[in-house]
From TrEMBL:
This is ANTAR domain-containing protein. InterPro entries: ANTAR, WH-like_DNA-bd_sf. Pfam families: ANTAR. Coiled coil: none annotated. Residues 10-56 form the ANTAR domain. GO terms for molecular function: RNA binding.
Length: 79
């Protein structure tokens, strides 16, 4: 597993963000997503916020590869 993303655990919405990711990925409701986080936490003996942070970091890494950040020229709106 990777190191914890900087300040990921300090974010108050880390668990709700991870819950949303799991709901989208697995088609489950919020309770099912939380249950999955709890199960992963127990399996790894790592706290839920850290498990959630790793999930968010992994999903973010995938999106950075699929959708790289636009350059300055690409973000400038033509008039």
């Amino acid at each position: 597993m990777r190191d914890t993303p900087p300040n990921a655990i300090d974010r108050p919405d880390v668990i709700s963000c991870a819950t949303g990711i799991l709901m989208e990925r697995y088609g489950c409701d919020a309770e099912g997503a939380i249950d999955r986080l709890v199960a992963w936490s127990r399996e790894t003996d790592i706290g839920i916020p850290l498990v959630a942070a790793w999930l968010i970091d992994d999903v973010s890494a995938v999106w950075r590869r699929v959708m790289p950040m636009p350059t300055t020229e690409e973000t400038t709106c033509p008039i």
